Amino acid sequence: MNTSEIAKWIQDRMPAGLLSGPPELAMYDDEAVVLLPVAPEPHIAEADPESRRAAELRQIATHREETRVLRMRLARDLQKQLGVPVAWGMRIGASQALFTTRSAPVMTRLGRAERDVLDTLVAAGVADTRSSALAYAVRAFAAEHADWLAEVRAAIAQVDQVRARLKLSRRAGAPSVPDAEE
Description:
Blueprint: H1 3-13, E1 24-27, E2 32-37, H2 49-82, E3 86-92, E4 95-98, H3 112-123, H4 130-144, H5 146-165
Parallel strand pairs: 2-3
Antiparallel strand pairs: 1-2, 3-4
Helix pairs in contact: 3-4
């Protein structure tokens, strides 16, 4: 199944009226992430931005609980087909929450200056550990440079498309090279 077929398969199994569009599917080596776009409740659009965000997050929490059993059943079926765990999330308006994504350890070497930054974040109470301080710094970078990251991801996707069009085939022997003219 390709991603559009999987999205259609999920959409067909979700409660009527829940989704505002097709689910978004992101495939990774170790996980598939399904993001469900949910239609906002009518009163949310009229609220001020701060109240709107709180209302969107409350609605996401409600739908998360209402669909938990269904999502877990679908995840088991998808995991069998895809061979990787399935994580879920929902988006309403500008608010988004991922529920069951995996966290993966990442090994990195940091110099003294970088460790000092992490230790400062821990000392200030921004994070409990160096690991969570680094995650905070990555999230802050992503928020600050979201447009740039989107542009880079689009460029990488184009490179992947060009690579996919390159059809390599094995040759029997060395390729022929035309003789140089004298």
